[in-house]
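Example record

Each entry pairs one chain with its bound ligand, zinc ion.
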Amino acid sequence: MTVVVATLEAVLSGTAIATGPVGHCVRCSTTVREGDAVGLSASQTADHRWQISRLYCTSCRPECLSASTRGVHKAIVHARAGTITDVTTQRSWLVCLDPTCVTIAGVNTETATTRSQRPPRHTQASALSQTPPSE
Ligand SMILES: [Zn+2]
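Structure tokens for the complex follow.
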């Protein structure tokens, strides 16, 4: 098996968010169309694939996860709805465009982490601290 490391945004970009050319918000049933800002709830399956489990309209899209994740990777993603059309079958469906992960919950914690609150990585700083003094 080949393991490819990618950001959640890269994994979800272009993923189907509805089975047809329009979708519906799970909270208020508003119709979601191409070009609309949307919220998505995504979770990771046992075989490490990410799947979109819920679609929200602009008004209803959450900023954070509401329930305990119980050791499962879950994320809230804000994105834009686009459409892909298969000209052969004349079928089109909504897809996730320009996704931004706003909240992600890890395997070892039940606490959701907001990406913007994470401290930046300082790999160079940690490498410097391991350098023995020169004197
Ligand atoms: Zn809604």
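Residues 25, 27-28, 30, 56-57, 59-60 surround zinc ion (CB under 6 Å).
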